[in-house]
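<given_protein>
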Amino acid sequence: MSYLTLSITLIFVLIPLILSRKLKLGLEKDTIIATVRSIVQLLAIGYVLQFIFDSENLLYIFLMVTLMLVTATLNARKKGSSIRGITWKVGATLLFVEVLTQSILLGFHITPPTAQFIISISGMVIGNSMVLAILFLNRFTSEVESRQDETELILSLGGTPKQAIHTQLMQSIKASMIPTIESQKTVGLVQLPGMMSGQIIGGADPIQAVQFQLLILFLLLTTAAVTSVMLGFLSYPTLFNQRMQLLKQHHQ
């Protein structure tokens, strides 16, 4: 695809701009900002990745993955601002998921230890883990806030913090995992995933593309489960003080 051809695709940006203007949705500015940022960021990262792939330097790979982890952590923590120490909790969760998945991939020689595979797969894993963290924190803080009376009743009857928060925690974990599970039920029938489509467009054998896509789907299942569970069990203890009393929650 040439830059001329790419510029023609801006038609797909023009259509929502026109609709927003006609319907007075007020989304024109945000749409333009999102478009410009995506162009600049993706082109910049494209050149950076080209440099890293050509150099195959472990330090550059490490720095790139670290940048992904830090950016994802700072973005996801916003939804859990009412939880003490949420930044390190999210960061530790994302880091654990990244180390776990890469250890399995590299340890069993499923993928080669090259920048091309490590960075590409890390981006998908960390990005998905970030979204799952956001979904979990959004649901969990809402559940805790809306059911404070129930939680305090259990505590007053002698229940432990874990018992008092159990229902909210399990429902939040389940709710954050459901989108990943449900989307995989219709994969190949309703949608052709991005990685598979990209490989096919690039000329790869469809069966080979399917195999890589299945790898990513299985990875995302682990990502969804580990992210939700680990972040949940790291977060709930800080909702209580040393006297096992629930701290007042203010969902943002």
About this structure: The chain has a mean pLDDT of 89. The two ends are 43 Å apart (CA to CA). The chain is about 75% helix and 0% strand. Residues 73 and 88 are 8 Å apart (CA to CA).
